[in-house]
Amino acid sequence: MPARGNNLTIAKIEPLNADEFNWISRFLNDRTGIQLKDGKQAMVMGRLEKRLRMQDFQSYSQYFRSLNQPGNELELKLAVDLLTTNETYFFREPQHFDFFCAQILPKHPLSKPLRVWSAACSSGEEAYTLGFLLAEYFPSKNWEIIGTDISSRVLEKAREGLYPVSAAENIPPGLLRKHCLKGLDEYDGFMMIDHAIRKRIQFEHANLIGEIPDIGLFDVIFLRNVMIYFENDTKQRVLDRLQKFLRPGGYFFISHTESLNGFKTPFKMIKPSIYQKPQ
After folding, report:
1. b/e for 223-253, b at 16 or more Cβ within 10 A?
2. CA 223, 225, 231: angle at the middle one, nearest 5?
3. Domains of the chain
4. What is the dihedral of CA 189, 197, 244, 104, to 10 degrees?
5. Using CA of residue 131, residue 133, residue 134, residue 136, what is the dihedral sign?
6. Residues in a beta bridge with 252
7. What are 222's strand-pairing partners?
8. Helices 73-83 and 41-54, interaxial angle, to 10°?
9. What does each of the 279 residues of the chain score in pLDDT, given as a tens digit?
């Protein structure tokens, strides 16, 4: 309750209406391919409300109109960042990493560098999980991981490699002790990925339905928990593009909740959610 005599008031922001939700849904779909389904109104308001208050807007329509104004490109980019779903964690869907270690790494020629792409890498947990495993299996071998995401905000976090200690819940204790540093003083309660791992992983901005940088060919591509937000035509476009980055014989991972059934790809299913490109 405000103190007596304090005349400070907080402007009330009008709730997001149906027309505004439809507008932001089209906006996000055009730029990222992500489809905001009905029921996500509270999520949109929760992620954008602070931006409205900082700029003294009283409605979402006012804010949305501002995104199209010349010179407001940074705010537009920030809106996309805030609306992009970025949930991830270390060793998510561990069966994939079991297959990676048991079936892919032992068969990879020692004379060839191994390249892995963590597409839509979010804040980097998937890429670092792969880094832990590669560092264990190939301690002296040339390997490389590229992580890409549409959100510059989460890419900065990924590059930093700093996470709360609670994020280590699924990291095997041996890997945690070997490849993570416990924070002290102002970093108490945090851990940092060891520099030896961080220097082997490169994080770059990429829009899977827009311009993808020249990142070369890969032996393995992870694209998990991403296409669930796409309509089928967008999924097909993304699959058409990504398969060109995968070497013949390479492996393509999607989430256990996803399937490539009904889509045109060169991939052969090895087991549910794991596919291989023919030689």
Report:
1. bbbbbebbeeebbbebbeebbebbbeebbbb
2. 95
3. 18-83 (1.10.155), 94-276 (3.40.50.150)
4. -100
5. positive
6. 221, 275
7. 118, 253
8. 150
9. 344 444 444 568 899 999 999 999 999 888 888 888 888 899 999 989 999 999 999 999 999 999 988 888 889 888 888 888 677 999 999 999 999 999 999 999 888 999 999 999 999 999 999 999 999 998 877 899 999 999 988 999 999 999 999 999 999 999 999 999 999 898 899 999 999 999 999 999 999 998 889 999 999 999 999 998 899 999 999 999 999 999 999 999 999 999 999 999 999 999 999 999 999
Spatial neighbors of 7 by CB under 8 A, at least 6 apart, are none
Q: Tokens 């204790």, residue?
A: 173
Do residues 16 and 60 lie in contact, with contact meaning Cβ atoms separated by under 8 Å?
Answer: yes
- The amino acid present at 100, given as its one-letter code, is F
Q: Rounded to the nearest 5 degrees, what angle is found at the Cα of 129, between the Cα atoms of 213 and 109? A: 75
Nearest partner of 274 among 258, 263, 264, judged by Cα: 258
Residues 272 and 260: their CA atoms lie apart, in Å, by 9
Q: Are 120 and 146 in contact (CB under 8 A)?
A: no
| C-alpha closest to that of 151 among 79, 210, 209 | 79
Query: How far, CA to CA in Å, does 215 sit from each of 4, 44, 190, 197, 206?
Result: 61, 33, 31, 19, 10
Q: What is the DSSP string of 17-52?
A: -HHHHHHHHHHHHHHH-B---TT-HHHHHHHHHHHH
Q: Which residues contact 76 (CB under 8 A, 6 or more apart)?
A: 67, 68
